[in-house]
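Morning, I've got a small favour to ask if you have a moment. I've dropped the whole record in just underneath, so have a look.
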Amino acid sequence: MSDISSRMKTAWNSRARRDAYFYVETTFWNNDKAAFFALGEARSVTLIDPVLNAHGIAGAGATAIDLGCGVGRFTQALGRRFGTVIGLDVSEDMVTQARSAAHGLPGLSFTATDGMAMPLPDASADFIWSYEVFQHMPSHDVMLSNLREVARTLRPARYALLHFRTAHAYPAALWHIARLMPPPLMRALKQALGKDPLTADASWRGASPVSRTAIQEMCKAAALEIVEFLEDPTHRPGTRIFALLRRK
């Protein structure tokens, strides 16, 4: 396992052990698990269903992947739309909690990864979904590695709907300052300021935002074709976007 994979895994396992649900949904988590999973379903209706309906993707014989599944809120929602759904996450602790939350639900499985590759066969997925995951990837190289895996895993003429951060929702200078600080110092500073030290590293902060042009360039390098960009109604306008992709 590479150093970057090990750091991502260690950081996300620490977050999952403290409060997996909070670190998946920092804005709306209120200790109500039923509401947490209901939000995953509601967002699936808004964000996923129009794509599935437009392209005829879902069905009992189709397979979906939830890339960066966390505790499986979208995995469970996808399970109501696909016969087989595989949740992938870099954190073993997230995967363990996802399995527990989905106990008894048919067609769902969860696997821990190294954050760089999907332990799945070539051309095995009809739909790949990822939400609020690429924004945490610590470098553009990690993003590109995941995009190449998306291309490898998709069946011909099938689709991926991936979520990207296109701009910071806070002053960009703060991100640059944090990027330059050694992680131990950043953790100490956050703690001194009453902030969460588990959000001090690159696996939370993520790489710099990517423009539409940068997304197009990375997708081209990964042998993915952009079908269209879709606006994200769940974040501040201009800060996130969805790319609907197809394997070339």
Notes: The two ends are 29 Å apart (CA to CA).
